[in-house]
Structures are given as C-alpha cells and as structure tokens.
Amino acid sequence: MSTTPNKRIAFVTGGSRGIGEAIVQRLAADSIHVVAVARNSEKLAGLVAALTAAGHSVESVSVDVGDSAALAASIEAVIEKHGRLDVLVNNAGITRDGLFMRMEDKDFDDVINVNLRAAFVACRAAARSMIRAKWGRIINIASVSGIIGNAGQVNYSASKAGLIGMTKSIARELAGKQVTANCVAPGFTTTDMTDVLPPQIKEKVVEMIPLRRFGTPADVAHAVAFLASENAGYITGQVVAVDGGMSM
Ligand code: NAP
Fold this sequence. Notes:
single chain; 248 residues; seven-stranded parallel beta sheet
C-alpha cells in the first residue's frame, strides 16, 4: 500500500548537492515525492529537513551508486514502499581528470563505474515498475564533454557519450510502453565539480560559452523538471544541452 498515493515518485542520484540538489528541490516544488540519493547521509538529512520544513515531500537514501547490488536494492525498496517509481534521474557523477597518455586504468574504470554503469543498473531496476504503469521518465545527466569531447577527460567524456548512446537505446526499447528516456547535457555549471578550476581557466571557459557565463544548477534542474513532466510525453531519445550554446 503506497504511503504517497497522489504523488509521482522520483529517485534522484547525486541529490545531496550541486545540480542534483537543485533537481531534488525543483521536482519537490512540482509536487513530486523525491528520494534524494548520495553517500553523505548527514548532507542528505539536512536537505530533507529543510525541504520538509518548507512543506515538500522528500526522503533520502544513503548509497554508493558504484555498488550495483546496493543501488538496485535501494530502488527496489522505493518501489516496494511506494508501489511504483515514476521518474529516475541518474545524476551522480565524478571526474578523475588527466591527460589520456598518463591515465591509470583505475581512473578510467572508476569514472565509467559511477557515471555509466550505475545509470545502467538504475535504469534496469526502475524500468519494470514504469513498464507496468505504462508511464515513466528516465533522465540521464550527460555533459557537453560527451558531445564535443574535452582534453583531460577521456574517461569522463567516454562515460557521458556512453550515457547518451545507452539512453537512446533504452528509449527505443521502452517507447512502446510510454516510458521516455532522455539526456540533459549540462555545460560548465557552478558546483563543487567546477569550483576546483583555477580562476584563469574559468575565464578561458567563459570565453568559449556563447551566453558568456557558467550555468547554474537551477538552469539544469528546469530542463530536468520539464522532461519529467506530463507535458514531455512525446519527447524521447533526445539530448537537451543546457550549456549556454557551447555545443551548438
Ligand atoms: P557535484 O557537485 O560534485 O555533486 C555530485 C553528487 O553526486 C553529490 O551529491 C555526490 O554526493 C554524488 N555522488 C558522487 N559519487 C557518488 C557515488 N559513488 N554514489 C552516490 N552518490 C555519489 O557534481 P555536479 O557538478 O552537481 O554534477 C552533477 C552531474 O552533472 C554529474 O553527473 C556531472 O558529471 C554532471 N555535469 C556537471 C557539470 C558541471 O559543470 N558541474 C557539467 C556537465 C555535467 P556524495 O559525495 O555524498 O556521494
């Protein structure tokens, strides 16, 4: 028996900070019950407390998405608890940058494992419930690096390009069941991930962005919220770039 009978249920990985936190906030504001997922349970608890105090319906799960069995089990637990899962956002992502001639196998494997393999595991775990309901929204957070490449990011670009190919294939497999699968591909966005860039690199990056600024997490969350909505039911297999025009 569902505890949230009148709400869509969303599962957002990497939901504790940055783009994922903005997605959690935005979907919750759209009256969706959101399960925010990350490793840091304290950070998640703070977010859940703040959103609950603001009248939103949220919960959190602390899991390392690199642990396939734990990730699949956490999705199955959500489906068991709420009776279904309507929206899956695979947003958790990491970087291990370095020039490819010097890149260690481990740095390649770790990035593929978290950015691509975990998304595959989560899609597979969530799909059965969506197929049963004949309604579902899968949204995978790719990157401009997966579209145009980026020096120093062979592992990351490969994971994000892989995510795009995987999403298009899933879209084709699930279209007959009215389950859509799309990617949102952010450009440079102001979060912890880009905070590490030296100021002179940030200035160079801004020069490459037609809209002449970094994106905000909310810029990305708005696109995700649209793709998760009833209004996006005829959009599948697409990559929505939220990158200030960088990849055009
Ligand atoms: P971020 O600020 O570094 O946040 C990453 C989020 O993922 C955190 O909530 C983190 O929480 C979680 N996470 C990382 N590894 C995890 C794991 N193994 N298991 C579970 N959760 C994990 O990153 P962001 O900038 O918001 O990026 C979000 C997504 O957008 C990523 O997929 C990234 O590749 C993509 N993206 C970002 C940019 C950008 O410029 N920021 C550009 C293009 C694409 P814990 O550490 O607590 O686990």
